[in-house]
Amino acid sequence: MQLTPLAGHSRVKVRLMGVSKLQVGQLWKKDGTKDIYLVTRLFSEALSTMVILRKSGSEGEAQIRVRVERAADGAHSIPGFSPAQEDEKF
User: Fold this and answer.
1) Considering the domain boundaries, does residue 58 fall inside one?
2) CA geometry: angle at 76 spanning 86 and 69, to 5°?
3) pLDDT digits over 51-68, tens only?
4) Structural domain boundaries, residue 48
């Protein structure tokens, strides 16, 4: 049996981006600190997406409500926070 080569080249295009999807249970680090926050709730309010964050390990503290920002490429971000694991793709 003989294999014949394909006429064209195969290519895989990989595009690295920020967090493409926010989900309950994700961990985010507060900028400028080492504090880690857990996403406990996502909801829509008017024309915005809101996220509720709770400081990890501090169930008794007040939760934080933040408006989610969306970039032109569809990536999501939480102002003042960054993903707890930079190399993790959500």
Assistant:
1) yes
2) 125
3) 999 998 888 889 999 999
4) 27-83
